[in-house]
Design goal:
Distance between the termini: 22 Å
CATH architecture: 3-Layer(aba) Sandwich
Helix content: 55-70%
Number of helices: 19
Structural class: mainly alpha
Shape: globular
Strand content: 5-15%
Number of domains: 1
Radius of gyration: 21 Å
CATH class: Alpha Beta
Mean pLDDT: 94
Oligomer: single chain
Strand order of the largest sheet: 3-2-1-4-5
Number of strands: 5
Length: about 400
Amino acid sequence: MEMNEKTFRRCTRGLWDTTVPGITFDDYGVSNYATMFDDLCKLNPRGEEGLRTWESLVAQMKNSGNGKKYDCIIGVSGGTDSSYLLHLAKSEYGLRPLAVNLDNGWNSETAVQNIKKMTTALNIDLETYVIEYEEIKDLLKSYMKAGLPWIDNPSDLAIQSALFLLASKEKVKFILAGNDFRSEGKQPTEWTYSDQKQMKFLHRKFGSTKLKTYPLLSVEKYLWLSMVKKIRMYYPYNYLDYVKGSAQKFIMEKYGWKYYGEHHHENIFTKWAIGQWMFEKFGIDKRLITYSAQVLSGSVTREEAIEIVGRKPLLPESVASDTEYILKKLNLSAEEFQKIWDDPNRSFTDYPSYYRIIERYSSMIEWILWNFFRMRPKIFAEMKARKNSPAD
């Protein structure tokens, strides 16, 4: 993570620095990522306007769910955001959600217990979508062999697919997600991008196990579910005055929920992928994005955040045992892993994907998504911020 002191620069508002792809600074040292964050806040207002939007959405969910078992589906991981969302939906707004958890074989025991505590106390049905472990193992190793920074993309893609497929099965039109850009930020595309097309290519090239239980959702199927069945994903925290720290304290006291560590540490593989694979092999620190968002949201001071990212994401004394556990569970020998580690780092642009199409027709796609689906994927805000920012 070292960089020549003469070239290193950090945003004067957040933690974004010159390790972040496509970053530029204005005359005051404010980065284009900080400007992008401001733009996202304007596009997704909270306060009275946000509350009106959310309450209107709640009314739509209840009306759509009339005569059905569920009003909505909520993806749960055992983390703070999705756990509090269960409470919010059921206790505060009287919705009838179905909780859906993806079991990819890597959930921590703390996360599993958190999900059980929340769904039991709130009397919410839980559906666990189980992927045969040999399949997810093969996919994760495929991404590692491909030399990409974000090797947990198979889990991310599976979660979204499972939610849409289960929504279709249950005849539910509303999927609620606990994502919150004000506390998570927007990761640079170069760090985390992948899609179903790329995943299938990487699996054919590097994998060997046939995918029988992995939830594959083609673009055609997604468009069918979105346009014809009108299944959409919504983000309540875009509208509500959600404060992660306060929410965490609340669910601890009311439901006995337990803290598991940093963002995404509820999943063992994800924790290692962020803290060891990305940080040590690629020099990528995802915490820069997360804590920048929290600084601009006022939940942590810039000085506190800088101090946190000044420490390595994983405790040095735990790295060896964590890596040993990961390799054993992936059936990778130390020699096989060392070869993968030593192979050149790659970019997602080195492999086929839909990204070039998205990039080329970004304005048109963004217009269609907003005008027909009321969706504003953050990738378009990032494209715009990076395109419109003048070079230093």
